[in-house]
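FORM 7B: Structural annotation worksheet

SECTION A. Query
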Amino acid sequence: MAAVSYDYADETVIVTGGSSGIGRAVARRFGAAGATVVVADVRDEPKRDGAPTHEAIREAGGHATFVETDVSDPGEVRSVVEAAREFGGVDVMVNNAGIYRGAPLLDADAETFDRVYGVNVRGVFAGMQAAARDMLDRGEPGSIVNTASISSELAQPGHAMYDASKGAIMMLTRVAALELAEHGVRVNAVAPGPVDTDIGSGDTSESETDVIDVGKSAPMGRSASPEEVAGSYLFLASDDASYVTGHLLYVDGGYAVY
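SECTION B. Predicted structure
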């Protein structure tokens, strides 16, 4: 099967939650495509074996740096975007950081709800806002890609906090796409299905995991690897998607079909 390649030379890409999971795979794909990658996460070490993402990109001949970032703090998100100015300013903003907390509605507490929303929703809101302002200030409209989920539209028992946060990301993506279209900034989201990551273990910022449990499996019969999901981010940020905005791209092995 044919392989697709992209050229992001001379472009700067921020990936939040880029130390592990989907974010790590996305950052490495952008690095391999020639971009300067700014990895933003609460820690630089990946949850699984391997060098930190920015070091792995450098070892492969690319350009990358790491900025410790808690995306629930808008000031820290703005600092990451400001750090990208050292490389010319952000061209692609990937708002990928997220956490998962599961509990039945009657057992969920407000503190945990606020924590999930703080990372998953406020982090995306702050990332879109800071990146868009930077793009407009420089007169260089770029692309924003958020990590949503099949949970954005699919209700799951015990997932009230997580599903609500992912639904909010879907609507933030659509509203931002409407408001920023006149400025030439495209805003889209990737909606992964079951993916083999470690989002559920520890309060760290990364992306989607195999937390889906509604009595069925993906038609393809397996979870995706993070690398299988990463290419969709490069597509949405590329000129091949120049007329695509406000779109939720499912990468779910057919999960949402039935």
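SECTION C. Observations
Helices lie at 21-32, 53-59, 74-84, 110-138, 160-180, 226-237. Residues 52 and 119 are 21 Å apart (CA to CA).

SECTION D. Sign-off
Analyst initials: ____
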